[in-house]
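Exercise: predict the structure of this protein bound to 2-acetamido-2-deoxy-beta-D-glucopyranose.
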Amino acid sequence: MRLSTSSLVVLLALSAGADRTTEAGEASITDPNAECTPYYYAPVSDHSSDFPAIWQHPEEILSNDSEGQAKFDAMSASIPNIPPKGTLNGDFSGMNYPASDPDCWWTDSKCITPKLAGLQPDVANVPEPRTLGYGFDDGPNCSHNAFYAYLESRNQKATMFYIGSNVMDWPLEAQRGVADGHQICVHTWSHRYMTAATNVGAFAELWYTMKAIKLVCGVTPTCWRPPYGDVDDRIRYIATQLGLQTVIWKYDSNDWSVGTNGVTRQTVQDNYDHLINLAQNGTFDTVGAIILTHELNNYTMQTAMDNYDKLTEVFDNILPIAVALNNTTPYVEKNVTSPTFAEYTSGTTTTSSDSNADAAPASDPESGGESESARSSGANGKTSTASKGAASNSGEGSGQRAQGSSGARTRAVGLGGAGAGVALLLGGLVAGGMRVLFGV
Ligand SMILES: *[C@@H]1O[C@H](CO)[C@@H](O)[C@H](O)[C@H]1NC(C)=O
Ligand SMILES: *[C@@H]1O[C@H](CO)[C@@H](O)[C@H](O)[C@H]1NC(C)=O
Ligand SMILES: *[C@@H]1O[C@H](CO)[C@@H](O)[C@H](O)[C@H]1NC(C)=O
Ligand SMILES: *[C@@H]1O[C@H](CO)[C@@H](O)[C@H](O)[C@H]1NC(C)=O
Ligand SMILES: *[C@@H]1O[C@H](CO)[C@@H](O)[C@H](O)[C@H]1NC(C)=O
Ligand SMILES: *[C@@H]1O[C@H](CO)[C@@H](O)[C@H](O)[C@H]1NC(C)=O
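Solution:
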C-alpha cells in the first residue's frame, strides 16, 4: 500500500477532534475510521530503533540489544535439539514427522502435555467448573473501542493476547487493555508459525513483544499463546525460559477464518452454539473451558458481543485466564495484581492499588487525574491497579508531550520532522492490510 502525503493529511483530518496523545482521549473516539487513522506517539517513536521492523519476523536479536543477547545466550545451549518445522507461513508439506509425535507438536496432534521433562503442560482449559476462560487474540485492533466499551459496560474482563507489532502501531489501544483491567499476554511479534522459526528467531518473536508491552503498558506478561496453536517442546522451552506459560484452547470459534476453507458466519455461530450446548449438558461441570476468539475485525468483535449474554446464561463464571487460575500476579511486576477467583466472582473484578501506585498518575498531569481514573473504574467503583500502571508508564513520555503540549501540535511535529513517525504511520496502515492475509 502506498500513500501520498495528501492522503496522510486527509487521514489525519478524520481524527482531528480527539486527543490522540492519551489513552483516555483515544478511547473516546467512536468512529472506526478515525480510530484506525495512525497517530504519532513519542514513547514508541523514540524507541523504534530498539525493536525489529513492524510485522517482519525478527531473524536475529538486534545488534546492540545486549540484554536480549545475554538472555538468549543463557538459554541457548540447553534448548532441545528439535529442528525447525516447515515454513513461517505454515507450509508443512513434505515433512516426515513420526506418528509418535516426539515433540508434542500441537499442530500435529493437539498435544498439550510436553514430552520434554521439566516443562509445564499448556493451559487448554480452566480448572474451575462451569467457568469460561475468556480471551481474544490478535489485538490491539485499532477499532476496538466499541467492543472494549461493551466489555466495560458489562464489567467483564478478559485475557488479551497482543501482537507486538500491533502494540507498537496502536499503543494507546494497548494501554486501554490494561486500563480496562484486562490481562495482557504475548501473541508474538509478527504472527508466524513459531515451530518454523530458528531458536533465535523464536526467542526474538517473544522477547520483543514482551519489551513492547512493557514499554507501552508498563507491565511484562507471563503468558503467551502461539499463533495457529503452533507450538512444540522446543518453542515451549524457549517460552518457559522467558517466563511465559503457554495458553492454548480446546474449543475454536473459527471466527478469524470466515470466507476461507468454506467457513461461513453460520459455521462460526454453530461453533459458539456447540460450546453453549456443551455447557448446558454438563460437559463443563467438573472442568471449565477455553474458546478461541479474536479481536481481529468488526465481525469477530461483534460476534463476541452478540454471543455474550448467551454465554453468561450457561456459564456460572466468565473470567480472564489468570483469574480462573487464581494467579494474582500475572506480570513480572509483582506490584500489579489481579483478583483471586473468589474475589472476581464476588464482584471485585479489579484489585485496589497499593500506595506506590497511587502516586504514579500525579507525575503525568496530562493523562493521569480524574478523567482516566474515573473512566477505568468498574461498575462497582473499584479502581484498577493496572490502570495506574499504564498511567505511570505513559508518564515516561510526558516530557515529550509537554514539549508538544497540544495533541494536534504533537502530531504535526511528528509527521513533519521525524522519519520514524512516518514509518510508524505507514507500518500501521500496512499492518491493517496484512492481518487480513494472516488470519488467526
Ligand atoms: C541501538 O542502536 C540504535 C541505532 O542503531 C539506537 O537508536 C538505539 O538507542 C540503540 N539501543 C540500545 C538499547 O542501545
Ligand atoms: C454433551 O453433548 C456432547 C455432544 O453432543 C456429548 O458428546 C457429551 O457426551 C454430552 N455430555 C453429557 C455430560 O451429557
Ligand atoms: C481492525 O479491525 C478493522 C475492522 O473493524 C479492520 O479493517 C482492520 O484491519 C483491523 N486492524 C488491525 C490492525 O487488525
Ligand atoms: C460494527 O460495525 C457496525 C456498523 O458500523 C457498528 O454499528 C458496530 O458498533 C460495530 N461493532 C463493533 C464491535 O465495532
Ligand atoms: C482458587 O482459590 C480458591 C480459594 O480462594 C479455591 O477454592 C479454588 O479451588 C482455587 N482455584 C484454583 C484453580 O486454584
Ligand atoms: C511497579 O514497579 C515497577 C518497578 O518494578 C514500577 O516501575 C511501576 O511504576 C510500579 N507500578 C505500580 C502500579 O506501582
